[in-house]
Amino acid sequence: MISELSRREYDVILRSDLGYFAERCFYELNPQAAFLPNWHIEVIAAKLAAVRAGKIRRLIINLPPRHLKSLLASVALPAWCLGHDPSAQILCVSYAQDLADKLARDCRGIMMRPWYQRIFPTRLAPHRHAVQEFITTLQGYRLATSTGGVLTGRGADFILIDDPLKPDEALSDARRKDNNEWYSHTSTVGSTTSGGARLSSSCSDCTRTTSSATCSGRSRGRS
Q1: pLDDT at residue 36, as a whole number
Q2: Domain boundaries defined on the chain
Q3: What is the pLDDT of residue 190?
Q4: Which of 63, 106, 117, 135 could disulfide-pair with 128, CB 3.0 to 4.6 Å?
Q5: How much helix, strand and coil, in percent to the nearest 5, is found in the chain?
Q6: What distance in Å separates the CA atoms of residue 160 and residue 59, rounded to the nearest whole number?
Q7: 54 vs 59, 74, 141, 157, 199, CA distance in Å?
Q8: CA distance 103 to 85
Q9: 139 conformational bin, left if phi > 0, alpha if psi -120 to 50, beta if neither
């Protein structure tokens, strides 16, 4: 069906449907791999779109590895949000800085592709393309950091925490407690508005990992 659409029609779908946008991101980042559609991808995409619209204030995603939760939540969603609102401020957190940087590079790469710039007016500011924080010409940004990082004074409309703990650390009561305390402090100092959406993406030992950090993001209720 998609193959029968004109490029203009396909672009409209990419702008309006996060699920198809994420699929396009998958092909961009994994050119040799086959995308396998499944109902869980559609559900996650719909819930994430509702987060952006301000209809969901707290969201937890628990899935095994290799189910595209990071692609959807940490790569496609920030790029899609910034496409619709170049002034959006997005904070993305993972258990390690190298993982946070990898996801940031993927997102930045998507936003610099010709097809992305064809469907969205958003542009990254010249000379402000750093992996850990790239900024748009309208002062929106995606900031990548690790759990435990210092974020005092930084605001965000969306706070996305993707894998707050390593799999082995999820079994540690002490590490979960530390993560919860860091999250509680970050949630207080990081948001730019009252109310909002909370998003957590975890992969292993779901019950224990989720208890360690409920990921927070703030939304200004965009439509």
Answers
A1: 93
A2: 2-212
A3: 47
A4: 135
A5: 45, 15, 40
A6: 10
A7: 11, 18, 19, 11, 12
A8: 20
A9: left
